[in-house]
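Hi,

I'm pasting everything inline rather than attaching a file, because the server keeps stripping attachments. The sequence lines come first, and each chain or strand is labelled.
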Amino acid sequence: MTTVSSEAAQQDVQAYMQSVGKAARAASRQLARASTKMRNDALLAIAEQLGNSRESLAEANRLDMAAGRDSGLDAALLDRLELTPSRIDAMITGLREVAALPDPIGEISDMSYRPSGIQVGKMRVPLGVIGIIYESRPNVTVEAASLCLKSGNATILRGGSEALHSNLAIAECISAALASSGLDAAAVQIVNTADRAAVGELITMPDYVDVIVPRGGKGLIERISRDSKVPVIKHLDGNCHVYVDADADLTKALAITFNSKTHRYGTCNTAESLLVDAAIAEAFLPQIGERLKAAGVEIRGCDQTRRYLPDASAAAEADWFEEYLAPIIAVKVISGLDEAIEHINTYSSHHTESIVTENYTRARRFLTEVDSSSVMVNASTRFADGFEYGLGAEIGISTDKLHARGPVGLQGLTSQKYIVFGDGHIRG
Amino acid sequence: MTTVSSEAAQQDVQAYMQSVGKAARAASRQLARASTKMRNDALLAIAEQLGNSRESLAEANRLDMAAGRDSGLDAALLDRLELTPSRIDAMITGLREVAALPDPIGEISDMSYRPSGIQVGKMRVPLGVIGIIYESRPNVTVEAASLCLKSGNATILRGGSEALHSNLAIAECISAALASSGLDAAAVQIVNTADRAAVGELITMPDYVDVIVPRGGKGLIERISRDSKVPVIKHLDGNCHVYVDADADLTKALAITFNSKTHRYGTCNTAESLLVDAAIAEAFLPQIGERLKAAGVEIRGCDQTRRYLPDASAAAEADWFEEYLAPIIAVKVISGLDEAIEHINTYSSHHTESIVTENYTRARRFLTEVDSSSVMVNASTRFADGFEYGLGAEIGISTDKLHARGPVGLQGLTSQKYIVFGDGHIRG
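And the predicted assembly:
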């Protein structure tokens, strides 16, 4: 891998990225025929290499941390950049867990005979080459690489430039492991330039890259989605809703609302809005108001909400769209299920919504009509997660409707092709 | 529906398309909760309306045909534009067949309990609003509308401007049928302006349109894919290959090659390239050469091919990429399976490829390693078709890897959301 100086002309970055893409495409062909064992062995070998390289990883990370401090990165970014011993442990454990998951590749399903005599079905195959664009979190390098490798995809990883030393140290571990496992070194490549033009190239090489997975803030993801000439599997942040129906069980409503909001504030499956049927508002709102207040959660309510919760501030229109990622919740008293569905389909980010109700018909309507990637009855929105859903791993949560929707596990990194068995069959 | 004059300013087209999009989004909400019976009744009502409107359909079509002749449309385009009585019959039959298909919507699958106690699975749901952009073929209007309606999607149809009168006559039938079935008239809308700016608007309204399906020539599809801000389900044309392996049964190889090439010349699943293992070239090429010659098929061969078929012209590099859609075939003698896979993955349009062999291991490798939407063993490439695969209907063939790949039936017009059943479950 060649280093490109920061003065590199645009053409140099383009030529470099083209060579990276070309090598990835070739590696993806080899990966498509690599056995389950070869791919799992490579994952375990990366784990071993990381374990043996704690010194050099720490040293590379110290360079990034020092440069980050010098350039005035804030505390949260520095925290994400740091490669602590326990984070290295977590990367190693993660690799072993991914190696132990069932292989999604090669699964043949739905084979059936047609009247013509041919037998038709589907075979699960890798997507090919996946480009991952993410911020300065070195542990994402290993996590993303492992899921792509497991699913038989070649990967081009473009992490934040602040983490370049750490990522290159990780890249050395990965290269050594791939070599020892007999896999093409280009099966996992880390973009070795801090030049931002590299991202522009990566997302406009449809001949070499099959899918882009951007991970990071909303701004990054929106920019990449707008400019990409390659399909993007997005996981955006979430404005998730809990709707407490007139027939809710109050105990469940309290537990689910409180857990959905307060279990963690910074996650995309945290509830940001609470809708309450007017018929149950008087019974429910004072109780949940008290619990949320005790937990330090600020309530921004509609006029009716503020009648029951005089301490609440007034919600503005913008609050219904807001993903706070903070101890704040928007609360609205509504006239019933129709308004709840209408409100959610209008303001939600289509991530996760939950109805609390004992009413069969309304539960069924909510499930059918709410247009979000996860729709729940009597459960906390915090369950919207690849591990909780049993996917074994998660590369993110997709709020798009095509291909993968909701938590995206290994299957989301695959495609299916049709396969046909004949015995000399021709079409009449 | 308002008519926009041809002098309409860009803003007028934009405002008009926004209103179309907004109405489609609202209609899609109603369709998402419409019962199976309502949607099927609407399909049957459209069939009835078309049957009762043969006069007005013919009259509208005569206007389009006359204008087409005046503006010098070529014979092939005029043929596609014409709405003959038998084409109207075919549209009516098609609607009844789609109504009789199983409903894809609402299917719940893979519900399983997780260690936390929640029960998680998937529900099949419509995509929402589908924009269809196609050329001047009025029968496509009915076909596309019926598949979208069946799968619970609202549709915005933008046909070629040469067919506008015919399409508006069809639109009247559809509107009357929707009204009589209690569905929102905006469930199917036909863009009522010949202004080409309408296409530009349609593909850049992600708030109102979930997917674009372009149907037509490669140029149209490439342009739309490039400019669209909405995901595109593409069906491009095909450069399909037949590979005759060293262990091919000669009788099967002859039948499959001949059928794949000559059954129909103008279809995307027609074979355009033939690869022959050198070990079987001497036995196979003279025989297939004779049959193809008798059928009037021109052969463009590599040097080795021309040793066995002296009449063949010399293939140029461009021939390996070519989709002839004509009685021409490119023929290459190759060294074996590795070269076959390499050649196909390099030159193919990733549509459909077939190996003819009795060899188990090579059949298996071909299936696994050829990166196309349909991969076959001992069967004609002409089988790559939604009806032949048992999908019941086909909106096109996707050569993309995300979402729908290969023949796209009703399922390709749907998405799946996760559903979660709890009983007050919260995350610990």
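The longest helix of chain B spans residues 10-33.

If the labels don't parse on your end, tell me and I'll reformat.
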